Prior knowledge:
This protein is an alpha+beta fold. The chain has helices at 36-42, 44-65, 85-103, 133-144, 154-160, 194-237, 253-261, 268-273, 356-364, 385-399, 408-416, and strands at 23-33, 68-73, 77-82, 114-125, 130-131, 150-153, 167-174, 183-189, 318-321, 324-328, 340-344, 347-350, 403-404, 469-475, 497-501, 517-521, 529-531, 534-535. A hairpin with an 8-residue loop joins strand 7 (167-174) and strand 8.
Amino acid sequence: MAEIRNIKSGKSGGEPPREAMPRRLAAIVAGDIVGYSRLMQIDEEGTHVRVKRLERELIEPSIVEHHGKLVKTTGDGFLAIFDSPVEAVRCGIVIQQSMVGRNASLPKHHWIEYRIGVNLGDVIIEADDVYGDGVNIATRIEGIADPGQVYISGGIYEQIKHKLVCGYESLGDRKVKNITDPVRVYRVLPDATSFNRIRKRRESVLLILLSLTLLIIAGGVLWYLLVEPRSQMAHQAAAPASPLAESPRPPSSESSAARQDVPPPPSASSIAKQDVPLPPSPVPPLVSSPAPPQAVPETQPAPSIAPPAAAAVREPEMVPVRGGIFSMGSNDDLSEKPVRRVTVKPFVIGKYPVTVREWNECAAAKACGFVAAGKDDAPVTNVSWSDAKTFVTWLANATGKPYRLPSEAEWEYAARGGTQSKYWWGDQPQPGMANCKNCADVAGVEQPVKVGSFKPNPFGLFDMGGSVDQWVEDCWHRSYQGAPSDGSPWLGGECSSHVIRSGSWKNDATYVRPASRDSYDTNVRYPTHGFRVALSP
């Protein structure tokens, strides 16, 4: 007898009830190593060790740091899920930028390069794996990504397009294997100005091609107007005489005799072989007569020039800050708790964030790793914590002064300016007080405005909120539980990420509170990150 099923519940006679598999909407990140088989052929054991080290030191910590979960590794790749599309893409950017630094000292054929695809979709979650079209699409997008790049789906793009300081290049709709509908794909450009540079480069190429086309057309027109008539005239001149023309008569003896008195014009060969005088030239000679002799001055020894003295290092303008006791933190965010009393010793801190001009002096001395773009009086951006440490080390050596990064406690104490309100000017945001998103009429699209464009706080410090995120010395901890109370930096642990303060011109007013804090990976640059320096008295 056929088994009768309960159509409503789907249960059969003696079969135990099946639990429904949990489903959820998630951001899926799929990563894969390009040319893994080739690397294994070159050095099987070494490649295996390097990949495992990357998983242990970079992949897993980055996923955890960005609040994701590593689902599995696949030998040459990994799969992770995130609650937040923003954190998923940010994690992918961090991994790719970290790999650039890790590959820098290796020959190109030994590079380990990841392709990363990110998709937003509904997935089925099991204890040790995830399934569904959302996973399949992420894997397919990863498969078409270029080495070292992060590609995202249209669903991810719609969620993050106004939340990350990135550029995005649309690659159009792509047909991917085993997926019915085409998938809209975007390439992530971690530097916000990259898309503009690519667009300008393409416009330049189009302009060059257009210019070449116009030159070719103009050349053709000139040839037709100038060369073609002459060729036609030459053709007519070379044409045979008309049969109606009179035949030439044989020369008479008289005319022949007359012609014998006139020598034929000399040829070039005869001139070379004989002393035949050239006919006078209508052009005046270059030298009509020898110039009168002139007295030659005695040679004087060149004056000795002393080598230029080394240019003095432009030190940042500094402001002394008196010590004191204040309440550090707030109850607005878990990372800012618990609020506690902290004692800060007197110190000196930069009046402004470090500027492009100041940074480029370090770059000119071959100490800092890149030349910063932008106006000289704008704050330097796209700086990692390691870059900031390199700068203060160079500045300390060049000046003989103990320049350093401020501690997190020093930074907040200076940012508050002796106040305990939410902002140094009060508890509510006010327009025109800080360079942040929707905080002022001044808008910086690719770079913040010049330092000192807004009012200083009571300590006379500018841009202690907004402008650029600012690195401090401290390692990142998720709360202040166990933090020192003497104003010193909180170090220790793996310290794979450090604290950033201030918020940036791309963040809203919530981020410019003196108590607001965030973190970022130690060795990774980001377009809104800068810093300011400090000194111990």
